[in-house]
Amino acid sequence: MLKAQGDGPGALAAYRQSLAIREALAARDPANTQWQVDVAVSCGKLGTLEHGQNVEVRRAYLLRGKTILARLKSADRLMANQDWTEWFAEQLQQLPPDRP
């Protein structure tokens, strides 16, 4: 909601707080697929939020989310409606290239 209202700094803070909460839950029960997916979703939100983040940070979030989902998918733990690996790949392609 903060992002839609144009509050980039507020959205960034909320997304970071959400990621921290989800990471804590996922660490408590690594076998819980939904909590792992939730971490990936938070990474996706942070990776697509431009305000206050450089491209390298955004790319790192997107790669992390994609890696989490790919790992779950290869372990056959990801349901079809949770497979956003292509979405992550598309978001990564839309980022400007790395600087030399």
Description:
- The chain is an all-alpha fold and about 100 residues long.
- It is built from 4 helices and no strands.
- Helix 1 (about 10-30) runs antiparallel to helix 2 and helix 2 (about 35-50) packs antiparallel against helix 3.
- The longest helix is centred in the N-terminal third of the chain and has 21 residues, at about 10-30.
- The protein is globular.
- The mean pLDDT is about 90.
Topology, pairings included?
Blueprint: H1 8-28, H2 33-48, H3 55-74, H4 85-94
Helix pairs in contact: 1-2, 2-3, 3-4
Helix content: 55-70%
- Tell me, briefly, the overall form: globular
Mean pLDDT: 91
β-strand amount: under 5%
Note the gap between the termini: 36 Å
Which class of secondary structure composition applies to the elements?
mainly alpha
Characterize this entry briefly:
This protein has helices spanning 8-28, 33-48, 55-74, 85-94. By secondary structure, the chain is an all-alpha fold.
Descriptive key words:
100 residues, single chain, mainly alpha, 4 helices, 0% strand
